[in-house]
Amino acid sequence: MSKLFPFSAIVGQDEMKLGLVIAAVDASVGGVLVFGDRGTGKSTAVRALAGLLPRMQVVENCPYNCAPERPFGQCGSCSAARVKSVPVPVVDLPLGATEDRVVGALDLERALVHGEKAFEPGLLARANRGFLYIDEVNLLEDHLVDLLLDVAASGENVVEREGLSVRHPARFVLIGSGNPEEGELRPQLLDRYGLAVEVSAPRDLPTRVEVIRRRDEFDRDPAAFVARWQRKESEQRRRIVRARERLAEVTVSDATLEQAAGLCIALGTDGLRGELTLIRAGRALAALDGDAAVGATHLARVAPMALRHRLRRNPLDDAGSTTRVERAIAQCFDA
Amino acid sequence: MSAAGASSTAWEDVRAAAQLFAVTPLGVSIHARPGPWRDWWLARVQELLPSGTVWRRVPAQVDAGRLLGGLDLAATLSSGRPITEIGVLAAAHRGVLVLSMAERLATLAAGIIANALDTGAVRLERDGITALDPAAFAVIALDESLDDEDGLAAGLADRMALHLELPAGRLPDVDADPIDRAAVESARARLDDIVVDDTARSVLSDVACKLGLASSRPELAALQVARAAAALDGATHVGDDHLALAIRLVLLPRVAFAPGADTGPPEPETDEQQDHPPSESEAPTADAPEASTQSVPEPEQDAVIDPSAARLPPDLLAQIAAAAARAKSVAPAGRSGPSGQSRRRGRPIGSTSGDPRQGARLDVIATLRAAAPWQRLRGTQGKLAAGRIEVRRSDFRVKRYKQHQETTTVFVVDASGSAAANRLGEAKGAVELLLADCYVRRDRVALIVFRGAAASVLLEPTRSLVRAKRLLARMPAGGGTPLAAGIDAAVALAASVTRSGSTPQLVFLTDGRANVGRDGLGGSEAAMRDALDAATRLRSAGYGSAVIDVSPRPRPFAADCAANMAARYLALPHADAGAIAAAARAVAA
Q1: At B327, is the pLDDT very low, low, confident or very high (cuts 50, 70, 90)?
Q2: Contacts of A234 (CB under 8 A, 6+ apart)
């Protein structure tokens, strides 16, 4: 429909951009939660991802975006085995979507007209191997959020409804955005996002002017603006592709593992998910930077987004989680 | 005459807003009761827009299905194949969407509209239908909220360029200076050629920065307004006048409702902090009797004490709710509270098989889905004409609703001198404990304080518990005990909370030593009479409430008050943990 604002043209908001790029390099870090003020470009950044990501190979006409080398073999299009290159799906889960369209349901048209019982895949199928984006995640019905997190964690969508019994792959990176003023998220949900990035409005004048100028230019002539930023976008895309190739070779030393564990212990995060995410995000960052091994600097940069939402929270404690993470980083790494 | 003088400046802005809206599609929120000003504005805008512009009025009760569209039931049934019905948003494409009583719009609906404004399109994923329709429209939100109520949803308000406050009363001479339609049309044609330089942009950003606006949307809207103003002027560049107008119309009104106000408006009372002696001069009549009879100790340091020292029954809030529900069930008919109508109201939580004739709402889509697989089979019986669907009773699915369960807990805290002497700190600790409970239950909280001659709402209903805690910590104390005013304020706030769709419950923390009456004058007898009267009114309004007596030696009056309110009464005797625990057990039993 309309042109997307280029990812590289987003001014500032480095943490949010880094978080999204890390998820693009290594989907196994888990989802990304983007929380912050209104009008700071949360949705713009996530939607811009669609234009940034390298294309992927899929079986033609496959509703599940199956990879040619690993077909799922349910829809019958795999046998044709024609391969097509498509953009990585960044599927918008609109507010007001009904459950049948999210998980998939009985194909109403075929049922009514032909009397056939057929499965019509939903948004989860369309998001397979890509991203699923929920704007205003705190407005989404709880049962849908639970369902999405469950599918995102298991990588498989199981449908048992209307006499249908279907399971299909649904491996996607869940991205949620929201504004804390609209209501806080349940701690159980927070913990299930891999990374949590905070965005805030830029307070310095030059940055703000630049934000407004770029947005204004884009609104007035989207095509020309996108063309001007094309080179930057390709550079960023190549960086992601190279990082993906390098990812497996990046080493993590025992000392680094110990540092990560030390940080988590200092912060008292529950469970091992925090450490795992910290290491994975650090590895993706090292790959992006072209480094051969994960070091303390990498961990320190990704620690806030990997850990801030895993801290035991006192609802009445007004000291921000970010400050606590930063304090712990200073203690663990500078000692 | 002074009112006329005040409204004449507003008149210029109102007029300018109508012109600007006609030049470029802007989001406008109009905060006003229905009246001649609003009617004039809407009529004028409609007149100035190009003829044939879609003008779509949307009621506040609109649901996601109507906004987004979905399955057209009649057409689907008659044709035998799914037919899509276009939603309100897509129908308003290239036009104007007018939200009536926008303050009553459901959060979800507001979110959907905001999303369409951002993307210029609606994405439909409902009822087995997928569609992406263009939906670029301008919004006029008619916000009729009272001053003490929540207005337009914050997310939507952020996306509105202009925020007009229309005065009540008669219009000025409208015809003296008619708007030139031709000027508006030529401005519309020239709009794209208006040049904006970096200086103009930085002026707007600078003002936004200084006003502390977090969002960058107001700046973009101001830019759009400045451009339209320049076009109306016949200028080629955006000049200072245009920027000034944009700042006045777009940026300045934001300060009043800036979402970033979390840091708190400057407290008028921060200078006179907690340590007033009870014989504070502002209410000399009030506490004098007590001070003499009681040898009041130095008011203890008002720091919030360890909450664990204030022992409360763990499920106090739940008990209040339960008590309120019991009170409701015996309340006279016609006043049925929001929790009695779960067949048709509330949040849909799916559907179940059932009979729609018992007042439940038929879930048509689910019913069709249930019927669909059997059509072939039923069709072969030969009676069914082609293109018809046979639906049997066993296919019926009815919608299930979950009643809106949100609760707003209003804390009404006695900060009088006598209460300050009597462990106000401990009362604060008790409120903190209850706040933590509210967090678990996702309640909203509000804070009313009464002291001196009157009661005031310290914190409007909010979900930000941190703010509640912060305000509580700096709450000033001292003066008389206007218990009646406190109860009246609580009833008023509870009524406003009810109107906003939430269920209020009231928690009073007082020592019950009422000594200031409704008229603001001292005198224990009148004060106690007024308090009992206010308590009776509270009962008749049917709000769930509890009274926590923080006095060291509870007197019967607080209990009497609680009885009049039909409230749960709970004394917090001095540091006698065993007795409190026993009391709590007794209450729970």
Answers
A1: very low
A2: none
Range 297-326 of A in CB contact (< 8 A) with B:
315-316, 318
Taking only the tens of pLDDT, chain A with its 335 residues reads 467 899 999 998 899 999 999 999 998 898 899 988 877 888 889 989 888 888 888 887 788 888 777 766 666 666 666 788 888 899 988 888 878 888 888 787 777 777 777 888 889 999 988 999 988 887 777 778 878 888 888 888 988 876 778 888 888 999 998 887 666 666 667 777 899 998 888 888 888 889 989 998 998 899 999 999 999 999 999 999 999 999 999 999 999 999 899 888 888 876 788 899 999 999 999 999 999 999 999 999 999 999 888 876 655 555 567 788 888 888 887 65
Nearest to B166 by CA among B36, B59, B19, B26: B36
Domains present along chain A, CATH in parentheses: 7-53+88-199 (3.40.50.300), 248-332 (1.10.8.80)
B195 burial (CB, 10 Å; 0-12 / 13-18 / 19+) is exposed
Strand, coil or helix: A288: helix
Length of chain A: 335
Question: Residue A155 — left, alpha, or beta (φ > 0 → left; ψ -120 to 50 → alpha)?
Answer: left
The closest alpha carbon to B23, from B162, B198, B200, belongs to B162
Provide the 10 A C-beta neighbour count for residue A28.
15
CB B554 within 8 A of CB B510: no
Task: Please report the pLDDT score of residue A39 as a whole number.
Answer: 77
User: Which pTM value belongs to this model?
Assistant: 0.70
Chain B interface includes A81 (CB < 8 A): no
Determine how β-strand B96-99 pairs with β-strand B55-58: parallel
In a mutagenesis test of the B interface, which of A98, A102, A124 is the best target, namely the one with the most B β-carbons within 10 Å? Answer: A98
How is residue B503 annotated by DSSP?
Answer: E
Q: State the number of CA atoms in the 13 A half-sphere of A326 facing the CB.
A: 5
Those of residues 17-46 in A touching chain B at CB distance below 8 A are: 37-41, 43
Tell me the C-alpha distance between B185 and B50, whole Å. 8
Q: Where are the beta strands (DSSP E) in B481-543?
A: 503-510
From A53's Cα to the closest Cα of chain B, the distance in A is 20
Contact between residue A97 and residue B126 where contact means Cβ atoms under 8 Å apart: yes
Check CB contact of A255 with chain B, cutoff 8 Å.
no
Question: Angle, to 10 degrees, between the axis of helix B2-23 and the axis of helix B217-233?
Answer: 90
The candidate with the shortest Cα–Cα distance to B56, out of B160, B158, B137, B145, is B137
Q: What is the pLDDT of residues B496-515, one digit of tens each?
A: 888 777 888 888 888 888 88
A273 catalytic, yes or no?
Answer: yes
- Burial label for B173, CB within 10 Å (0-12, 13-18, 19+), is exposed
Annotated catalytic residue: which of A273, A280, A301, A324?
A: A273
- Mutation site for A-interface testing, chosen from B71, B78, B88, B216 by largest number of A Cβ within 10 Å: B216
Residue B126 distance to chain A (closest CA, Å): 5
Interface of B with A in 211-230 (CB under 8 A): 213-220, 223
B581: its two tokens: 């625990």
> In terms of CA atoms, which chain B residue is nearest residue A92?
B123
Residue A108, both tokens: 């109403």
* Burial (CB count within 10 angstroms: exposed 0-12, middle 13-18, buried 19+), residue A283: buried
Contact A109 B82 (CB under 8 A): yes
